[in-house]
Design goal:
This protein has 472 residues and is α+β, with helices and mostly antiparallel strands. It folds into 2 domains: 296 residues; 150 residues, Alpha-Beta Plaits (2-Layer Sandwich). 66% of the residues lie in helices and 9% in strands. It has 17 helices and 7 strands. The protein has a 5-stranded mixed sheet, with helices on both faces. Helix 3 packs antiparallel against helix 4. It is elongated.
């Protein structure tokens, strides 16, 4: 309340009174931010520490500038302190953007590119001509340019958070208002160095301090530490037009000035290119990575059973055909679960699904890294032992039998499931590569040769290979 009263009375105060009012507001914002900082979890304190540091350094800079005689002794430090304070404020806003918008990096990059382009045009069209007319030094121009462009970029990123947020966060609007007021004050002082403009700019800085203090104590600010729900990130025609316009704006403006015979700020063009290019490459890289992830996910879905994660029938058959073309022995195992229908009927299909998932997990864990496990259908599974002869086949079948003989637990109930298993060996020296379906059929027949009606039978029949005997 004191800060708001100081802002309202500011135009009618004397110069010393204005200095006192400004310092009261500047330093007064530190207390609420510190109180909020102390009650914020340690993992979420980074934005508030940066904000408090920015306010403290800003208050120090204002005190030095307004203290009688002190600002005249060290004037060279004031622009540096002001730039650092703005940088800390930007870092605080960026910390909010990173935490809140971590699920929308692509959208934030797009908005930042557009905002940087608008900030660059603001600099060149309005601010730079007036600075050149006033004879400002290169260092002062560079510091002000960085402030204007970075404030514009961060403001755009915050606007993206506001646009895509699924819930209303009042603190975000307050933070955006603070940055907008700060940017407007910077532009006013730089472009219109007149008493009226300086007064308006000082009032904007006061209002920005008040907004930052309100942001620090706003109860909704804690929501900014959690990511928002990810929006649909698609480069549609509308967004492509925005990006294309933003990327072309600065070169078109520079080309127009050259055609009209006006000078062009080469440093500005170089800095804009150096800032824009990494953002564009980052955006392209993220799109390429997302496309690769999507293609990989589609390939996985096309090759695997959606319930168990084992290979589906088509993919397993394809890999089996490829293996039969290799000059190595292999073994094919076909097994199903005894009593599975009774479990489905008694406990329901969700229990049956969980049982199938656990069966697939156990088998996938016990086979070798280069072996293949597939779901043939229902409760029937196939296992391909690659580069395996008769001894390896017997050993690996025993491993599968052992892991599936252990009890299954469902909602506190212990279930015992037996398996009927048939195994067929295929030797490389006597192999017909066109007998994939026949090999599967023989393994299936070997399984049914030992299948019994009892739900706990656990047996293995080592069938015959095609077209030769697989073993004794």
């Amino acid at each position: 309340m004191v800060s708001i009263c100081a802002l309202m009375a500011y135009p009618w105060l004397s110069p010393p009174g204005r200095d006192v009012a400004f310092l009261i507001v500047a330093w007064g914002t530190l207390l609420p931010v510190m109180l909020t900082l102390r009650h914020t979890p340690r993992a979420d304190r980074a934005p508030w520490w940066l904000l408090w540091s920015a306010l403290a350094l800003g208050g120090l800079t204002s005190s030095i500038r307004r203290w009688p005689g002190l600002g005249d002794d060290i004037p060279q430090f004031l622009p540096v302190l002001g730039t650092v304070a703005n940088a800390l404020l930007l870092a605080a806003a960026l910390a909010v953007v990173i935490r809140r918008g971590r699920n929308d990096i692509g959208g934030l990059i797009d908005t930042t590119i557009v905002s940087l382009a608008l900030g660059g045009l603001l600099w060149n069209v309005i601010i730079l001509p007036r600075l050149e007319a006033g004879g400002q030094s290169l260092s002062a121009k560079a510091s002000l340019f960085a402030t204007v462009v970075l404030l514009s970029g961060v403001f755009g990123a915050l606007a993206r958070l506001l646009e895509t947020g699924s819930e209303h966060v009042r603190a975000l609007r307050v933070l955006m208002a603070a940055l907008a007021l700060n940017l407007a004050g910077v532009v006013l002082i730089a472009a219109w160095n007149e008493p009226g403009a300086r007064l308006a700019a000082q009032m904007m800085f006061l209002a920005a301090y008040i907004c930052l203090g309100m942001f620090g104590i706003d109860t909704t600010a804690a929501k900014l530490a959690t990511p928002s729900s990810p929006p649909l990130d698609s480069l549609g025609p509308r967004r492509l037009i925005y990006l294309g316009t933003a990327l072309a704006a600065v070169p078109l403006w520079a080309g127009g000035r050259v055609l009209l015979g006006h000078p062009v700020d080469g440093l500005f063009l170089a800095v804009c290119g150096a800032v824009m290019a990494p953002l564009v490459m980052l955006r392209i890289g993220r799109l390429a990575a997302e496309r690769n992830r999507t293609e990989e996910a589609l390939r996985y879905l096309a090759a695997h059973d959606p319930l168990t994660g084992a290979l589906n029938r088509r993919e397993f058959t394809s890999r089996l055909a490829a293996e039969l073309r290799e000059p190595n022995d292999c073994a094919l195992v076909f097994f199903d679960l005894n009593g599975f229908k009774e479990i489905n009927d008694r406990l329901g299909h969700p229990a049956g699904d969980r049982l199938l998932i656990e069966v697939a997990r156990r088998v996938l864990d016990c086979v070798r890294e280069n072996d293949f496990v597939g779901r043939f259908g229902g409760d029937e599974f196939l296992v391909l032992f690659r580069n395996a002869g008769q001894p390896e086949m017997q050993h690996l079948c025993a491993r599968i039998r052992d892991v599936l003989s252990e009890p299954f637990v469902h909602d506190g109930d212990t279930l015992m499931i037996g398996v009927s298993m048939g195994a067929v060996l295929s030797e490389a020296g006597h192999r017909d590569p066109c007998v994939v379906e026949e090999l599967i059929r023989k393994a299936d027949e070997a399984m049914y040769g030992v299948k019994r009606p009892q739900p706990t039978i656990d047996d293995v029949d080592h069938g015959r290979a095609l077209p030769h005997p697989a073993g004794p």
